[in-house]
Amino acid sequence: MTQPTLRFRPLRPAVAGDAASTLDLLISITTPPPPDGANRQRPPLNLALVIDRSGSMSGTKLSYARKAARFLAGQLTAADRLAIATFDSDIDVLVPSRPAGDPQAFIAAINTIHSGGCTALFDGWLAGAQQVAEHLDPLALNRVLLLSDGQANEGLTNQGAIAEKVAGLTQRGISTSAFGLGAGFDEDLMGAIATAGDGTLAHIESPEQLADLYASELQGLANTVGRKVSIGIRAKNGAELLDLLNDLPPTSAGNHQLPSLRLGQELNVGVRLQLPAWLPNQEICSVRLAWDAPGSGQRLKLIEHLTLPVKPAEDLGQMTPDETVAEEFAVLQSNRSRRKALEELDRGDLLAAEATLGASAAFLQCLSPSERTVRELQLLESKQALLKTDRNRARKGLRRESLRSSLDVWEHDDERS
Predict the structure, then answer these.
(1) 264 Cα distance to chain centroid
(2) SS3 132
(3) Secondary-structure breakdown of the chain: helix, strand, coil percentages, each rounded to the nearest 5
(4) What is the side-by-side strand order in the sheet with 266-275?
(5) CA of 331: how far to CAs of 133, 180, 213, 262, 379, in Å?
(6) Would you call 129 helix, strand, or coil by DSSP?
(7) What is the pTM (predicted TM-score) of this model?
(8) What is the H or E stretch that residue 121 is in?
(9) What is the pLDDT of residues 16-67, one digit of tens each?
(10) Closest by Cα among 244, 224, 157 to 193
């Protein structure tokens, strides 16, 4: 059974013993790399593909959606299940959930998909979720893949109510990935669905990217070693948790939800703690990581405790900060700046949004240049430029990037280069 590791990385490797101090701490969760070989065993998949066929999907979008759906059907095995549903004003389950060994039944149904009317997005998602639920397998990865290019305008449309329904299915073991296509989809709703659904969020600017997205989603599912992941951070001995820089959803147990654990992946959580004058060998905090292991049905946990050397405050100020921690905190802060800029945009204050992004970029420029900081600066500068020419596209990019620290967010290869 694959076990993640939990590592503490403080900005400075000690705390003050003669004065109160602030501790910036990076908690890194890493998993081993995937083993060699394409035939590595994975849990079976129980999937429903839900495709928006509303009028705005006509033409190239729907053509590529059909093509990508045929690709998905061809990648599954007889151990997997797949259902296909479509929606506009009406909902159709084209193929009820069935074993996916022979793709021809799926391909024949996919070829019949044509565009129609409005966008009953929630009802479409629900139809797919019901198909997965009817064959719910605790030893499988059970997921709905929702693809839409539009705004929910029929049936249940309230974002909070939809997210609540999605979260309820997540607790039963059915996750949801949300794929927004083009310029017209509701990025806030799709982000809320993916967050509540413990799945992947994708913003697809061109329908030609769909096949790559589905391939990435299947690879991610194959490499998933933990789902329903939570992290609990408990300050000890008078320490106080001041800030959690990631935008992590809370769990019912008072912890926070993390994205699924995937082989070869590192998840970083940034926290800021306030400490009184500290005593040697005193525990600062404990961290509890818990997750469900696919294929076993077990709930596993890992607990680590943090202690650090104690130094005079004057010596602490002379210590060289860990550049990796400083860089990661800067990126987490830039995600937070994006969320602030989105709020300013929604208030109609474009100048404030531009200033917020500019301040974030200026802070990054003060750090030592690295591949990570240069890339982050490029992303911020591109959104600043888009705010002047295409505010809708800029907003979609800002929403996607703002969620990177709390959610599996898909990026096309072109975006990483």
Answers:
(1) 16
(2) helix
(3) 40, 30, 35
(4) 5-10, 21-30, 266-275, 240-244
(5) 38, 24, 25, 21, 11
(6) helix
(7) 0.93
(8) helix 121-134
(9) 999 999 999 999 999 999 887 644 678 899 999 999 999 999 999 999 999 9
(10) 157
